[in-house]
Design brief:
Shape: globular
Distance between the termini: 34 Å
Oligomer: single chain
Number of helices: 9
Strand content: under 5%
Largest sheet: 3 strands, mixed
Order of helices and strands: EHEHHHHEHHHH
Strand order of the largest sheet: 1-2-3
Length: about 210
């Protein structure tokens, strides 16, 4: 999905204008309206609880714990621990930097009926783009490519499901989540240059599915 950007008054006058306002696409609006009209307090409460699984604070603690646990292990596990910690730290910083450049109103600030149906308020009003939670999940899904088929697919499914919770609670437009997930995958692949984390996709256990 692509974004439609609106130039600020400063940019129109010939001067650089930041932050750049980002508007949701038409499909974004359709999806958000459908959720606002058809959701209920119970699924919203569940989605809000699940979305903590992709929160940067939780993931930083887990990555730090994994890094410490890997210190006494063999070299491949130490590299994996280094990679996970670096990726998690970078994935926590990147969304904050991007949100200084881009302004986008969260869908939960543009609905009344959604709040009647249990939609909560999430974060700062203008911090919709990109989804930091989805960025972390994209990095996680990308990093799982070095694992055997079954855990790789399980992690991908979990990452996708946790990313979708951001759409369900109207914290982000659908395209914010897609963009965040893609950025996370790109970030993880780029950081492999520094951490020597294995490139490519593991083919271990693939024969079990044939």
């Amino acid at each position: 999905m692509f974004k439609i950007t609106r130039l600020s008054a400063k940019r129109l006058s010939g001067r650089p204008g930041f932050p750049v306002t980002v508007r949701p696409t038409r499909p974004d609006v359709v999806v958000a309206r459908a959720i606002a009209r058809n959701t209920a307090p119970a699924p919203e409460l569940l989605a809000r609880a699940l979305t903590w699984g992709a929160d940067e604070k939780v993931l930083l603690v887990l990555a730090a714990a994994g890094w410490l646990a890997s210190r006494g292990c063999a070299a491949p596990l130490r590299r994996a621990g280094n990679h996970a910690l670096l990726v998690t730290f970078a994935a926590s910083l990147l969304p904050h930097g991007l949100k200084l450049v881009f302004d986008q109103t969260r869908p939960d600030r543009r609905t009344v009926i959604g709040h009647v149906h249990g939609v909560p308020f999430s974060g700062k009003r203008k911090d919709a783009f990109p989804s930091g939670h989805a960025l972390h999940m994209g990095a996680l899904a990308s990093g799982a490519s070095a694992l055997p088929a079954r855990p790789r697919r399980a992690i991908l499914a979990i990452a996708a499901a946790l990313s979708l919770t951001r759409i369900v609670i109207l914290a982000h437009w659908a395209s914010d989540v897609v963009a965040g997930f893609a950025l996370g995958a790109v970030l993880e692949r780029a950081l492999r240059l520094w951490t020597a984390y294995p490139n490519g996709v593991s083919t271990e256990d693939d024969h079990a599915d044939s």
